[in-house]
Structures are given as structure tokens and as C-alpha cells.
Design brief:
The chain folds into 2 domains: about 220 residues, Alpha-Beta Complex (Spore Coat Polysaccharide Biosynthesis Protein SpsA, Chain A), CATH 3.90.550.10; about 110 residues, UDP N-Acetylglucosamine Acyltransferase, domain 1. The strands form 6 sheets. Strands 14, 16, 17, 19, 21, 23, 24, 26, 27 and 29 form a 10-stranded parallel sheet that branches. Strands 5-4-1-6-11-8-12 form a 7-stranded mixed sheet, sandwiched between helices. The protein has a 6-stranded parallel sheet with strand order 15-18-20-22-25-28, with no helix packed on it. It is of the alpha/beta class. About 45% of the residues are buried.
Length: about 375
């Protein structure tokens, strides 16, 4: 169990629940605090000296390679492994088997966390486990897979989406694993195969040592726009270790904010943003680069990507807005999710919760 530990990050999913934000990009490249989601994961691994990282890809792979290259800019080595068809969580790792020669980590590519990978690996090795699963507590077990363990932390069984009152615990599979390389022999090649429903239950049935690592560290499945927004609220509130903000406004280079602008709460602005007279910004709020907030506009509790324009006296509340969108003057937008290049007409008031897809996007309603 010694030697260098590698990490496999599962980044092949289509991000359908996160659409329309993922119409033109993989979910791992969706920005979080103006940095691709995947970059946060990679930087966290590096702090624990895990620098040999394999990206298991399928859907829209090009943007990752274009942005990260070989990983040297971040001080890591990245290897890209492509699936010709989706093979499930375990099948995707099997597809990368030729790169795995020792103990390795597996991370789901849409879960944001501040895992203590060093402690996790120590726990795995101390138990001489074949596989160890990170568990996190939740309030509602009915949408997750609950994991039951004995007092020593050895996994006894998996219960898929039990009712809250019927669950033996509130500890769920949080999508992060440590696995020994010989376990790969149990995964059939070239087929769809799941850790959660096939590999781990099969290992339990044969009495192999599968352990749990109980963690109360921050964890968020960012698979929906609502959870994506909640992640930003949590990060700006300092709920995740390593994301503490000592001032309310963090502005990038060459931002122009008129002195009459009113600002409250935690606000992050990318480079070259302009906020015009009489505008009101209420955090938590994140704007990408080259955003423009018109005179008298109100923007609060939202995440905007790059080059978004909010017209005069428009209102934007609780929204996630992708690149190059325009919100017309005096429009009123609430709890909306906009894909790239969407135009909201002046004076319009879409229904709260509206999702607007880029023109011609696959799967557009």
C-alpha cells in the first residue's frame, strides 16, 4: 500500500441536471468563484501532495485540455483518458487501469469538498482495507445511498435512498474512495459498471475489507443550478475550509465602480467590471470578467459569468447567468438560469425559476 498515490477524477458526465449552464462546457469547467470547478479540486489534491492526476473523460473533453494542458502550471501531472462510451463510475476507472499501479483515489467530478486526503489515506492504510469510502452526514437520506457500518467503521451494507425514518444512519456515500489496484481485477472491461451498485456490494458479499471514513468536512453535490448557487453562498460565508474572506469586496484588475453604488455582503468581481451610478449590489454575489451593471440596476444573491450586461434599472435576484448574456433595461429576473448568449428583453418579467437555453442547444425545451 505504499508509494505515490494517484487520483482519478471522473469528469465524463454530461451535466444534464445543471443545464443550461452546461450546454457548451463540461460541468467540471463550470466556474466557481471565477475559477473552473476542476481547478479547485486539483489545487486541493496538490495541498496533500497528490500530484499525479488522471482525468476520466467522455463528454466535451476539449475545454479541459485547452485550459489545463499537462498540469504543469498548477504543479501537477495530468493524464487524459477518454471513454468511447459511458461506462459508469467503476467502468471509467477500469478504462484508466494502465495508469494505475498502486493505491489510488477516486473522486466524482461534480462534488465540491475540502477533504483531508492525508487523513483519509492514513485511515485506509491503518485498516488494511481494499477500499475505503468517504461518508458525509445529511439531513434527508431519501435522495442518497446510505452506508451502514460497524463500530470499527467496516462497511456492513448499502441502502439506496431509504426514507428518513427507515434509514439506519444519516451517513451517505459522498463519492470519494481510496482503492487498492488489485480491486480493478474485479471490474469487467469495456462494460458499464458501478462502484456503488455493483463493485462494492460484491466485495462485501465476499467478505473483503471495505471501510468507511466518516467526515464532517464541507461537502456539496453541485449537480443542479440551485446547489451551484448554494455552493457560492456557502463559500462566501466561509463554510468551507480554505475559503475565508477577510473583506466584503474582492475586485479584479481595472474594475470601475461609481462612488454612488451601494454594496452589502460578500461580493467578488472579475477583471474589467463596470458598475454604473446608482446601482445596488447585494452579496453573496459573484461576477466574472467584463461584466457591466447599468445605472440604477439591482443585482443580488447571484452568479454571473463573463461579459454579462445588466441594463439600467433592471433587477436580477437569485440567478445563475452564463457568458455573454444581456438583461434589458427594467427587466425583472428572479431565480432564473440562463445559458450562453441569452437576451432578456427590456421591461420583461419572466416567471421565477425560468431556464433559458442558448439558441440551437441540444435538448432545448
Amino acid at each position: 500500500m505504499g508509494g505515490t498515490v494517484k487520483a482519478v477524477i471522473l469528469v465524463g458526465g454530461q451535466g444534464t441536471r445543471l443545464r443550461p449552464l452546461t450546454c457548451n462546457r463540461p460541468k467540471s469547467m463550470v466556474p466557481v468563484l471565477n475559477m473552473p470547478f476542476l481547478e479547485h479540486v486539483i489545487r486541493n489534491l496538490k495541498t496533500h501532495r497528490i500530484t499525479d492526476i488522471i482525468l476520466a473523460q467522455h463528454h466535451l473533453p476539449a475545454p479541459m485540455a485547452q485550459y489545463f494542458g499537462d498540469g504543469s502550471r498548477l504543479g501537477v501531472k495530468l493524464t487524459y483518458v477518454m471513454e468511447d462510451s459511458p461506462r459508469g463510475t467503476a467502468g471509467a476507472v477500469k478504462n484508466a487501469e494502465r495508469h494505475l499501479d498502486g493505491t489510488f483515489l477516486v473522486l466524482n467530478g461534480d462534488i465540491f469538498h475540502d477533504r483531508n486526503f492525508t487523513g483519509f489515506l492514513g485511515h485506509h492504510r491503518g485498516n488494511q482495507a481494499k477500499a475505503t469510502i468517504v461518508l458525509s452526514p445529511v439531513d434527508d437520506t431519501s435522495i442518497y445511498g446510505v452506508v451502514e457500518t460497524d463500530q470499527a467503521g467496516r462497511v456492513l451494507r448499502f441502502i439506496e435512498k431509504p426514507k428518513r425514518e427507515e434509514a439506519p444512519s444519516n451517513w451517505i456515500n459522498a463519492g470519494t474512495y481510496v482503492i487498492e489496484p488489485d480491486v480493478l481485477n474485479r471490474i469487467p472491461p469495456g462494460v458499464k459498471y458501478s462502484f456503488e451498485r455493483e463493485l462494492f456490494p460484491g466485495m462485501l458479499a465476499e467478505g473483503l475489507p471495505v471501510y468507511a471514513y466518516h467526515s464532517r468536512q464541507y461537502w456539496m453535490d453541485t449537480g443542479t443550478p440551485e446547489k451551484y448557487l448554494q455552493l457560492h453562498r456557502d463559500l462566501l460565508a466561509g463554510k468551507c475550509e480554505g475559503y475565508e474572506f477577510d473583506r466584503d469586496l474582492i475586485a479584479g484588475k481595472d474594475c470601475r465602480i461609481h462612488p454612488s453604488v451601494k454594496m452589502t455582503g460578500k461580493i467578488v468581481l472579475g477583471d474589467n467590471c463596470a458598475v454604473e451610478p446608482g446601482a445596488i449590489l447585494n452579496g453573496p454575489l459573484v461576477l466574472g470578467s467584463r461584466c457591466r451593471i447599468g445605472p440604477g440596476a439591482v443585482v443580488e444573491d447571484s452568479v454571473m459569468w463573463d461579459r454579462v450586461t445588466v441594463g439600467p434599472r433592471a433587477s436580477v435576484r437569485g440567478c445563475a447567468i452564463a457568458n455573454d448574456c444581456v438583461i434589458g433595461a427594467e427587466a425583472d429576473l428572479k431565480d432564473a438560469v440562463l445559458g450562453d448568449h441569452v437576451f432578456i428583453e427590456a421591461g420583461s418579467k419572466p416567471e421565477p425559476g425560468t431556464r433559458v437555453f442558448p439558441e440551437g442547444a441540444e435538448g432545448t425545451p
